[in-house]
Amino acid sequence: MTNSPRSSRALVGDHDPIPHPHDEGQCDYCGLPLPRDWRRSRQVPNTDASAVQVQALTDYCCMGCRLAASITAARGESGAARWMLARLGLAIFFSMNVMAFTMTLWAEEWYGPVWETSGIGAAILADIFRYLCLIFATPVVLLLGPPLFENALEGLRQGRYSTDLLLASGVLAAFAISCYSVVVSEGPIYFEVTCAVLVAVTLGRWLEATGKLKAAESLNALERLLPTLVRKLQPLGGETEVAAESLVVGDRYRVAAGERFATDGVVHDSRGSVDQRLLTGESWPVSREPGDAVLAGTVNLDGDLKVEVTAPAGEGSFWQILDVIRRARATRGPTQRLVDSVSAWFLPTVTLVAILATAIHATFFGLDRGLLIGLSVLLIACPCALGLATPMAVWTALGVAANQSVLFRGCEALERLASIRVFRFDKTGTLTTSHPRVVELVCDPLTGPLEVISAACAMVSSSRHAFARAIHDFSREEGVESAPTPVQVIPGRGLRAEESPERPAVWLGSLRLFEEQGLKLGTAIREAVDRASAEGQAIVMIGWEGRARGLFAIEETLRQEAVGCLAELRTMNCDLAVLTGDSQSRGDQIARLLAIPVEAGLLPEQKLERVREARQKLGPIAMVGDGINDAPALVASDLGIAMGCGPDVTRDSAMVCLLSDDLRLIPWTLALARRTRRVIIENLFWAFGYNAVGVGLAAFGLLHPALAALCMVVSSVMVLTNSLRLKWFPAPPWVNLGASSAVATESPRVARPERSQLVQECSN
Amino acid sequence: MIGWPLILLGGLLGSSHCLGMCGGFAITVGLGARSVQGNVLRQLVYSSGRIFTYAVLGASVGLAGMTVAHEINAWVNAQALLSILAGTILVIQGLRSGGIRFGKRLSGPSGFGCLAGGMLGTFLTAPGLEFAFLAGILTGLLPCGLVYGYLALAASAGSFIESIGIMVVFGLGTVPMMFLAGVGASALSVAARRKLLRVAAYCVVITGLLAIGRGIWFVQTGEDTHGLSCPACRATD
Question: How many other C-beta atoms can be found within 10 angstroms of the C-beta atom of residue A483?
Answer without folding.
Answer: 8
